[in-house]
Amino acid sequence: MPAPSARTPADALDVLIVGAGFGGLYGLHKLRSLGLKVRVLEAAPSVGGTWYANRYPGARVDIQSLEYSYSFDEALQQEWNWSERYAAQPELLRYANHVADRFDLRRDIELDTRVEQMHFDEGARCWHARSADGRAWSARFVIMAIGPLSSPNTPAFEGLSSFEGRVLHSAAWPHEPVDFAGRDVAVIGTGSSAVQMIPIIAEQARSLTVFQRTPAYAVPAHNGPTDRERERRIKADYAGFRARNRKMRSGFGSELSPHPLPAMQVSDAVRDAVLEERWAIGGFSLLGAFTDLFTDMRANEFACEFVRSKIRSIVQDTTVAAALCPSHPIGCKRLCVDTGYYATYNRANVSLVDVNRAPIERITPHGVLAGGREHAADLLVLATGFDAFTGPLTRIDLRGRGGLHIRDKWQPGPLNYLGLAVAGFPNLFNLVGAGSTSAFTSVIVSIEHHIDWIADCMQWMQERGHTTIEPTEEAESHYVELMHAIAQQTIFLSCNSWYLGANIPGKPRLFMPMAGGFPMYAERCAAVARDGYSGFVLH
Ligand code: NA7
Predict the structure, then answer these.
(1) Which of 99, 26, 127, 109 is nearest to 455 (CA)?
(2) How crowded is residue 222: how many other Cβ atoms within 10 Å of its Cβ?
(3) Amino acid 269: pLDDT
(4) What is the residue with the minimal CA distance to atom 20 of ligand 1?
(5) Residue 6 above 90 pLDDT?
(6) pLDDT score for 472
(7) Contact (Cβ atoms closer than 8 angstroms) between residue 450 and residue 431
(8) Alpha-carbon span 458 to 256, nearest angstrom
């Protein structure tokens, strides 16, 4: 462990981790196993992070569970048996709890502890944290493991407080079951959360009105019980399977290779056959069908039109089908993985309001007024997403050297180096945030990568007697330029997405994740470490 400065408080922790989701849990396990004094602070009353907060009906992971799971412990990955191809939220939460128990993590986790303040003390070269209830901690290193999608976005709809029914947000769902029977439900939003909940709510509610700003591309999950033969095959060489996945741009999906030729170089018949095959497999496999879908708009348009034709074949009312057909490039916003989403619009109790044609004017006591018409509702669901990447950090009073607030530092956009560190914020690491490739990977692959990299860095510092590490502003701006240059070669800048902050009014429109693919990103991080942490200043 790096040497403490003479003025570091004697009771300071080695590492303070904020968040007990999958990132915080693995971080605690890994760093504690190196002999470090680690403490995790978690705002919720439970471990599990995203899978504790997002418990709306139908909430489930959109990457197959055999690939959306920890790889760090062979016994864990052998003994845990997922019940479904795509685990639902309760099972994911059980898994997080199992990991916390199995590795005896709870004794170093403080639940119900929301960190409100985190200040760097330049004299003592350590961080001081304070919780909402006034408790305090000091630590030489901080890992922010609070997730890129943990700050819910509640748009400022006029009249929202006048609504006499119940208002729910997908990311802050109540713990007791919500009874939709006999209710008139309005759902605002058609992202992944809405796409998962809409078919289930529609089956129970008297009426369901969906307010859509941007239509979603949704590909069937074909969810079902775990294929035990596939599970046996994977578990026979789980380490090899994980290693092959880490060679994929997305960190998962190695069982399927893209077609050997780009979409632009094959006949219409071949293209359709390949896309049809991927539709039958389901999920993100569609986006891996050809190598040029993310880089060539014409190739991408073939896949768009393929999904639009599916929408038109599923949805009986041609006007509704047309309204459900997206016009932006597929994959530019996160693809939704669904179960019966489009078919739900064939139900007599479901209606769709396109807010581009009929803008939401205000929420009334008894519904939603849009385009001059009041749509009755006694339950309003805001499936309106998150202030992604920056929101979770900027809502904390997080100050680095010279009292610099992260909000001010990031006013022009989330400057960072490797997605892991920020100039002016020594010894603070950020997990799966802006600059990381995590949003395009199975996030646990990114979490394990980041934590392993941070652990190696701390050991390296210890061996050389360093107390602080911090990127230079130059390294940071080169890295951000690289991120933008890579994004410019893709389709990602051609729509409004949370990757760009475009869902939050007033947020700078900047592409925040690293789109270069996991292998390229991991190699870059490894090269920085091999070069003695080039781009960082060490003291
Ligand atoms: P998303 O994907 O950000 O979806 C939020 C939805 O809410 C999306 O359709 C938005 O439309 C819509 N929205 C947001 N603000 C408004 C306003 N003011 N008026 C109307 N509609 C609005 O969040 P999710 O929770 O569904 O999914 C987040 C991630 O979780 C997902 O990508 C997976 O990784 C898991 P927009 O598209 O911005 O026009």
Answers:
(1) 26
(2) 14
(3) 97
(4) 213
(5) no
(6) 98
(7) yes
(8) 37
Give me the sign of the Cα torsion angle 187, 191, 192, 198.
positive
The pLDDT value given to residue 4: 55
pLDDT digit string, tens, across residues 497-539: 999 999 999 999 999 999 999 999 999 999 999 999 999 999 9
CA–CA separation, 254 and 431 (whole Å): 24
Residue whose C-alpha is closest to residue 361's, from 211, 463, 486: 211
Probe residue for ligand 1, chosen from 503, 507, 512 as the CB with the greatest number of ligand atoms within 8 Å: 503
Q: What number of other Cβ atoms are within 10 A of residue 14's Cβ?
A: 21
Q: By percentage, how much of the chain surpasses pLDDT 90?
A: 98
pLDDT tens figures, 310-350: 999 999 999 999 999 999 999 999 999 999 999 999 999 99
Atom of ligand 1 nearest to the CA of 171: 25
Q: Is the torsion defined by CA of 318, 324, 330, 331 positive or negative?
A: negative
The whole-number pLDDT of residue 1 equals 56
Q: Is 3 left (phi over 0), alpha (psi -120 to 50) or beta?
A: beta
Mean pLDDT of the chain: 97
| pLDDT recorded at residue 9 | 81
Closest CA to 183 of 320, 327, 349: 349
Identity of residue 39: R
Residue nearest to atom 19 of ligand 1 (CA): 213
Helix 89-102 and helix 22-33: axis angle, to 10°?
10
Per-residue pLDDT tens digits for 156-198: 999 999 999 999 999 999 999 999 999 999 999 999 999 999 9
In angstroms, the first-to-last Cα distance of the chain is 14
Whether 5 shows a pLDDT value over 70: the answer reads: no
Q: DSSP string covering 387-421, please?
A: -TTTHHHHTSEEE-GGG-BHHHHTTTS---BTTTB
Backbone angles phi, psi at 451, to 5 degrees: -65, -40
The amino acid occupying position 184 is D
Residue nearest to atom 27 of ligand 1 (CA): 192
DSSP string covering 118-152: EEEETTTTEEEEEETTS-EEEEEEEEE-S-SS-SB
Please say whether the beta carbons of 123 and 473 come within 8 A. Answer: no
Residues with CB under 6 A from ligand 1: 149, 155, 170, 188-194, 211, 213-214, 334, 355, 383-385, 496, 498, 503
Residue-wise pLDDT tens digits, 441-480: 999 999 999 999 999 999 999 999 999 999 999 999 999 9
Choose one of 89, 196, 369, 384 to mutate for the ligand 1 pocket test, by most ligand atoms within 8 angstroms of C-beta: 384
| Span from the CA of 384 to the centroid of ligand 1 (angstroms) | 4
388: left (phi over 0), alpha (psi -120 to 50) or beta: beta
350-354 — which CB contacts under 8 Å span 24+ positions? 350/198, 350/202, 350/207, 350/208, 350/209, 350/210, 351/207, 351/208, 351/209, 351/210, 351/375, 352/209, 352/210, 352/212, 352/320, 352/323, 352/324, 353/209, 353/210, 353/211, 353/212, 354/212, 354/323
User: Which pTM value belongs to this model?
Assistant: 0.97
